[in-house]
Specification:
By secondary structure, the chain is α+β, with helices and mostly antiparallel strands. It has three helices and eight strands, in the order H-H-E-H-E-E-E-E-E-E-E. Helices cover 16% and strands 46% of the residues.
Length: 170
């Protein structure tokens, strides 16, 4: 029931008719999945990214070009899936991640991300990530930080949206 002048009621009818013509899949909720890596950097004689996964190594190599030479290794990896626009959180002994991520109208992911690790090494940010884009966030650990025996000279958080095209939404 619409309590409005007849001219407005006609417009409401037009809107309802257009909505009825939409593909039902457009209205289905989507899952958004982001992968997070905590990368430790240990000062060394040369840059060494050999221990990193192939899908994030090029992004770390770009960062490494402007850093002191380090050996990079994965300290921990988490993947977090949430409903488009919903809050999700994962907590492990090594890393706490909180995200609100949405599929952008033009594609890609818009996300509000908070990452925390033991010792107060963390970050909070809002980002837009294109499909397949890898984002590297860095923070220097003072006095040795997370990592094997607390020896990381730098901590880098890497975030990457996981492809959803052709994947069944669970």
């Amino acid at each position: 029931i619409v309590a409005a002048p007849a001219s407005v009621q006609e417009e409401v009818g037009d809107v309802i008719a257009r909505l009825n013509k939409l593909d039902p899949k457009v209205a289905e909720p989507k899952n958004v999945e982001l992968s997070y890596w905590m990368i430790g950097g240990h000062k060394g004689a040369a840059v060494d990214i050999a221990a990193l996964p192939a899908d994030i190594a090029p992004a770390i190599a770009q960062v490494a070009a402007s850093e002191a030479p380090m050996t990079y290794s994965v300290l921990t990896h988490q993947t977090l899936r949430s409903l488009d626009g919903a809050h999700a959180r994962v907590t492990s002994p090594d890393l706490q991640i909180s995200q609100v991520a949405s599929v952008g109208p033009a594609g890609g992911i818009v996300a509000d991300i908070e990452i925390d690790a033991p010792g107060g090494v963390g970050t909070k940010t809002q980002v837009r990530l294109a499909d397949g884009q890898v984002l590297v966030l860095g923070q220097v650990a003072t006095g040795g930080g997370p990592g094997p025996s607390g020896t990381s000279d730098a901590i880098f958080y890497v975030v990457r949206p996981e492809p959803q095209i052709g994947r069944a939404h669970v």
